[in-house]
What does this fold into?
Amino acid sequence: MTRLNGRMIQEIRIGLLDTERRLQDTIGMGLQSLAFKAADLRPDSDVSKLTSSVVPVTSGQGVTPGFAHSVKEILEHVGIWAEVTSFTDVAGFAEAVNNGSDMIFMADDEQFVAHPLGTWTVVDNAECTALGFVQALEEAAEGLRNKQVLVIGLGRVGMHAIPHIRSRGASVLGLDIDPNTLLRARERYGIRCTLDSERAISEADLIFHASPSPVPGDLLRDGVIISAPGVPLAYDHKAREKAAVIIHDMLPTGVAVMAAKACKSILSGLAVREYEEWGLQING
It folds into this structure.
């Protein structure tokens, strides 16, 4: 997964209210409403009594300064009580369980997940980021049915986006610099793919941009709608002038959708709070 650096984290923490304002301006809903809709969680769901813990993880390149606290602030922004554990790694996980948290968030260099305790569910950030930004694209475009979406970058987020886009009635054109990646996408999903970036971008009305590769504004159509989970944002000043909408953030949408999916698992009755529900006997 893309590893955020300290400067990016600082921008996220400062800009959370700006992210909320931009979403309201572009799609007419805030971060919580977007996440709930993406996760198919009822809009009137009360998540205020649910608690979460964010566990810093030291493996790989180590803890990114401010990351855990940024996740905590996003969770609180969407109405969920949150804490950062005082311990890291396995000890932090144990601390969260012992504190009675309903859900635990953890990230290393490879994966960022949430686990709603008492369920069999692991919620993946890449999938949730894709889901959230597809939902935002659908809102901005006033529906995707019978439209084509250009997906730039067929890594983890881009690949996850494809079924969510198609489930909304749109077709997908995949664009990536790696022919083998395009072949895998074609074999897995049966989508059309291309290596011709100039033609694909210049003809696109809807773009899902899951790559850090920059897109020159000269290539874009006037009025294009762009949903861009790629880090960093890869559009210049001219692109911002030509696009009708550019939806982008580096963390909030993905975390908010993770939280909403975790809440749905708990609120829908998947949580098992009593061992007796499974007929288990606990020794000791």
